[in-house]
Design goal:
The complex is a heterotrimer of chains A (291), B (423) and C (283).
Chain A lengths: L1 H31 L2 E6 L2 E6 L3 H8 L1 H32 L6 H7 L2 H4 L2 H12 L5 H8 L13 H30 L2 H9 L4 H29 L3 H6 L11 H10 L4 H31 L1
Helix pairs in contact in A: 1-13, 2-13, 3-8, 3-10, 8-10, 10-13, 12-13
Chain B lengths: L1 H15 L11 E5 L4 H15 L3 E5 L3 H13 L7 E5 L3 H7 L11 H6 L2 H7 E2 L2 E2 L2 E13 H6 L9 H13 L15 H13 L16 H15 L13 H9 L5 E5 L3 H4 L11 E4 L11 E10 L6 H12 L1 H11 L6 H4 L2 H6 L3 H8 L2 E3 L6 H16 L5 H25 L1
Helix pairs in contact in B: 9-10, 9-18, 13-14, 18-19
Chain C lengths: L2 H33 L3 H4 L14 H8 L3 H36 L6 H13 L2 H14 L6 H26 L2 H9 L4 H12 L1 H17 L2 H6 L8 H11 L4 H36 L1
The chains are: A mainly alpha (291), B alpha/beta (423), C mainly alpha (283).
Chain lengths: 291, 423, 283
């Protein structure tokens, strides 16, 4: 009993900070999502519109196009980013000289501030003096400089490359951490039994990594659906709207059109979709993990 | 072990970091982009020396960021920033929402006479004044005389046909890779360029009552020409589709292009050896046009405005007049290259002497068009930039893009009017 | 496996690792090269791979020049450093209290904690930012390090609690139990036994929080005004607006801003990787 009381005391400060800072704005946003808003001096002017904001958003093709585009980023993140992360983690888990420093270097994209990453890549993709054009040209891969961010089909993929570059280290961290917990005896035993590397990987490593896979998929889904800074800095959504992502659309709804209510309803629609996705992942993986 | 390491890292941090404390009493508060900041701060100091009123400023990274902060401050009562620089396209929205103070009583008839009409217009909405003209700019067309000479040309192009031919010659002779670059990223800068080029085709994008006419044949012709410059004639750096003014400036200063457009007093930066490799090479010319008779460009007059929520309105008014009255504007033109909104300042001997190319600039100033000034401009501009950019990058046909833009513009207008009735 | 085969595999592994490192480091390396190049060399086509006259002048300018904007950048660095450090320390402290309550005293089910963490991660910051501005304005704490720090704390606490809870779960309970039997109070057990045993986990938590605070942009942009509270990302983006023509100066600023997190990665790589193990793998 005393313990419980002590527990509540311990948890209270954290609870207080989170509630004060995050829940009030969140509930206020939920409230706004049922109103049509216009900004006046000293506050919002509100007009109750029920579910209209939600209906508008759900019927807007711009919203769904942006959503699908963002989902495309997520798709790459999950399939390419996680495979890359796992591959590099397996490599870095082996014994070789300078392993420590290699493990450190590979973390760099994770720790750099986003604004710095945006600055770097903008310069790399520069169509006239950028490093990418120079490199490919000197290697003879391209015979003229390419405006990477101005070609409708190319631009989104250039952004996906940046997103993969900055996202892979986190997957590496988690996979490395997980790989280190797999006892060596398991591998040794399998080797004695005559299993080949693929069998070892698919029968021992992969199943043991399932919880991490689930975690990463959930994390990547959440993080990438929020992707904003890189897109905003590199293409601003262009060419046309071919790189406009949901966060961008929300930003522009709130700050360009000043439709706070509509912007809020977008966030809640997105929240619900992500929650459903996470629920589905968890169900899918439950069966996987038990198996 | 850990703590030792931590201590080490901590010490390195301390070596890297510098502490500066700034603790000054705030009187007037303003908000600025980083451009010309040192000069502005110097002026704020001078204002303080003269009146005893302190001015502090918040620096934002870009013009757009100023909007976010202003919006947020209006939501909270509008007292965070007493004075700010307002763009002509924002005036209607800010005025309708009651965010800016009308300053009619301070504008004398004699002032009205001296203010350049387009600059005055930019600060007015429904017959009231919402700001004092400050950077009364338009975009000037520039050519690199050295590069043109190499190709055997002495005069700048007058028509778009000449522009295309000269561009092709420049490229065929290997003098430049692309003859021109433009700011055609899906942002405000694209709208500015399009409004200018459309005007050179004789297109009007809005009628007198600000009803959009975006899908007129001439408007389509202008956009088609922009598309052709990139994809058919190949005389425009294709990266222009993702470029803003800064990127164009950079290409011009590097000598990569022979033609380009710039705001304000355009030669100041291009003749600054610390920023430009093309000092003395650029000249101002009238915009090319379809028939050589429509040398129009786009204007973007700005002004100093006072927040309706300011708690120091008197001082704020004093301040905007200090910055932007004739004396202030003259100082700004000479010291900082800010384009004055007063005719008398343009004709001032000191100004003419100090600012290179001001006569050429003034010649272009006779042919300027404003962007549409409607309270739903932000919404419209976001949409329109995307449509234009879709056409230029070949995602949509020119026809389709402008038809869509017209439809959406009408929707935005209608929605605005509906929400206004609902108030 | 034969010795030769083993060697070949080892060789392939090394090649792959080198490729991975190139992919990771090339952008950063190129930025560094840019930062020590002269302006004129950057507009060469095709680009030169190493500057013929490498210069550290830009670094000198960024650190010591008295001009307004570089000064703002230095102040921004200091503000970011203060906010990130203080928030990290407090979030480790509050987080470990809460984590202990959840792990040992079973206050909340861990499902709720996970859900809370995920939920807070899901909220798009765009939607919080205006409300936070208005609240800050009413409370007159806008444009202070305190307010920005408080918000960062709230955003990062759930993650801190989660990592620490995962770690506490792995600690053997016997020591605590015997201490309790010996008549120690729960607070004594927490502060004298559990926390001192958790050094690495506390550091990991602090590091993750520090990195998150160090890079945050949107909230800092809207909620800070003056040099007294502006953080590094905001001042960098001002820099980008102002010195857009000097790629080398911008690259220098980028590299300088990356030094603190890179130092952290260098010093605490093992912790960063192991730290999540307890939380993540056990989940």
């Amino acid at each position: 009993m005393l313990q419980k009381k002590f527990g509540y005391i311990l948890i209270f400060p954290s609870f207080l900070v989170i509630t004060l800072v995050l829940f009030y704005p969140l509930i206020y946003s939920l409230f706004l999502s049922f109103y049509q808003t216009s900004v006046g001096l000293g506050g919002l002017k509100l007009k109750f519109v029920g579910l209209n904001n939600y209906i508008d958003v759900l019927r807007s093709s711009e919203w769904w196009m942006s959503f699908l585009r963002t989902a495309y980023f997520v798709f790459y993140d999950i399939f390419v980013g996680m495979s890359l992360g796992l591959g590099i983690a397996i490599l870095l888990n082996k014994n070789f000289r300078f392993r420590g420093i290699a493990r450190t270097l590979v973390l760099f994209p994770y720790v750099l501030p986003t604004i710095v990453k945006a600055l770097m890549w903008k310069w790399i993709y520069n169509s006239d003096y950028g490093f990418l054009n120079s490199l490919l040209y000197q290697l003879g891969i391209i015979n003229h400089y390419i405006p990477w961010l101005s070609e409708p089909k190319l631009a989104i993929h250039m952004l996906i490359i940046v997103n993969l570059w900055e996202g892979t280290p986190f997957a590496i961290i988690l996979y490395l951490a997980a790989l280190q917990t797999i006892p060596n005896e398991l591998y040794e035993a399998a080797e004695i039994d005559g299993a080949n590397s693929w069998q070892i990987f698919s029968k021992i490593t992969l199943p043991l990594l399932m919880p991490i896979n689930l975690m990463l998929i959930v994390y990547k889904t959440i993080a990438t659906f929020k992707i904003f800074d890189i897109v905003y800095a590199l293409t601003g959504g262009g060419p046309g709207t071919t790189t406009q992502v949901v966060a961008h659309l929300m930003y522009s709804t709130v700050f360009d059109s000043l439709q706070f209510g509509k912007g809020a309803s977008m966030s809640f629609i997105l929240l619900i979709i992500i929650l459903v996705l996470v629920y589905i992942y968890t169900k899918l993986f439950k069966s996987e993990i038990n198996y | 072990m850990f703590f030792k390491k931590f201590l080490k890292v901590f010490l390195i941090f301390l070596l890297l970091a510098f502490v500066f404390t700034i603790a000054e009493e705030v009187e007037l508060h303003t908000i600025n982009g980083p451009g010309g900041l040192e000069w502005l701060i110097k002026r704020y100091k001078e204002f303080q020396d003269k009146t005893g009123i302190k001015v502090t400023t918040t620096v934002v990274p870009y013009g757009r960021d100023q909007n976010i902060k202003l919006m947020a401050s209006f939501l909270a009562g509008g007292s965070a920033y007493d004075v700010f620089v307002i763009d002509c396209v924002e005036v209607p929205q800010y005025a309708e929402a009651g965010w800016v103070l009308a300053i009619d009583e301070y504008i004398t008839p004699e002032m009205k006479k001296d203010l350049l009409p387009f600059a005055a217009d930019g600060m007015m909405y429904k017959g009231k004044w919402y700001g004092l003209p400050w950077a009364s700019e338009w975009k000037s067309f520039l050519y690199n005389a050295n590069l043109l000479k190499k190709a055997g040309f002495t005069n700048p192009p007058k028509t778009w046909d000449e522009f295309v031919k000269m561009s092709q010659t420049l490229q065929n002779k290997g003098i430049v890779k692309y003859a021109s670059a433009w700011s055609w990223a899906p942002k405000e800068c694209l709208i500015c360029d399009y409004v200018a080029i459309a005007a050179t085709f004789g297109a009007e994008l809005f009628d007198k009552d600000n009803n959009p006419k975006l899908n007129s044949p001439l408007a389509k012709q202008a956009l088609q020409f922009m598309y052709d410059m990139i994809h058919k004639y190949k005389i425009v750096n294709p990266a222009s589709i993702s470029w803003t003014e800064n990127d164009v400036d950079k290409a011009m200063a590097a000598g990569d292009v022979a033609f380009g457009m710039r705001w304000g007093l355009p030669l100041v930066m291009l003749n600054d050896p610390s920023q430009s490799k093309t000092v003395g090479q650029w000249k101002i010319a009238l915009m090319p046009s379809i028939d050589g008779k429509h040398p129009y460009t786009v204007s973007g007059p700005m002004g100093w405005a006072v927040s309706a929520g300011s708690k120091h309105k008197e001082e704020a008014i004093k301040f905007i007049f200090f910055m932007a009255d004739r004396e202030g504007a003259k100082k700004a033109a000479i010291e900082q290259g800010v384009v004055p909104g007063w005719a008398s300042v343009f004709n001032d001997k000191d100004v003419i002497k100090a600012v290179p190319g001001i006569e050429d600039l003034l010649e272009q100033g006779k042919y300027v068009v404003n962007r549409p000034r409607v309270p739903w401009y932000h919404d419209f501009s976001t949409m329109f930039a995307k449509e234009l950019n879709s056409a230029l990058s070949g995602i949509k046909s020119v026809d389709q893009a402008l038809e869509d833009a017209q439809k959406k513009a009408l929707e935005i207008k209608e929605e605005y009017e509906k929400s206004k009735l609902g108030k | 496996m034969s010795n030769l085969k083993k060697r070949i595999f080892y060789f392939i592994d090394i090649i792959l690792i080198i490729l991975a490192l190139i992919w990771t480091l090339l952008p950063i390396f190129w930025t560094f090269i840019t930062s020590i190049s002269e302006e004129t060399e950057l507009t060469k086509v095709p680009a030169s791979w190493f500057p013929s006259h490498p210069t550290f002048e830009n670094y000198w300018n960024v650190f010591f020049k008295k001009a307004g904007t570089t000064n703002a950048f230095r102040v921004g660095l200091m503000n970011s450093f203060i906010i990130s450090t203080v928030v990290s320390i407090i979030s480790v402290f509050l987080g470990s209290l809460a984590a202990y309550a959840i792990s040992r005293l079973k206050i909340l089910s861990s499902n709720i904690v996970v859900f809370l963490l995920l939920f807070i991660q899901m909220i798009p910051p765009v939607i919080l930012v205006t409300s936070l501005y208005v609240i800050g304005s009413y409370l007159k704490i806008l444009d202070t390090k305190f307010y920005l720090g408080l918000i960062y704390l709230a955003l990062n606490l759930p993650m801190a609690i989660w990592i620490l809870k995962g770690y506490f779960d792995t600690l053997p309970k016997e020591i605590e139990d015997s201490a309790l039997v010996d008549g120690c109070s729960p607070p004594t057990v927490l502060f004298r036994i559990v926390i001192p045993l958790s050094g690495p986990a506390l550091f990991t938590t602090g590091i993750f929080t520090f990195i998150a605070c160090w890079g945050e942009f949107l909230l800092a942009l809207v909620l800070t005004d003056s040099l007294a509270s502006k953080t590094m990302p905001v001042t960098i983006s001002e820099f980008m607006g102002r010195f857009y023509v000097s790629f080398n100066l911008m690259a220098t600023v980028g590299i300088v801003a990356s030094i603190p997190p890179i130092l952290i990665a260098l010093a605490f790589q093992r912790l960063i990787i192991q730290g999540l193990t307890s939380g993540a793998v056990k989940e």
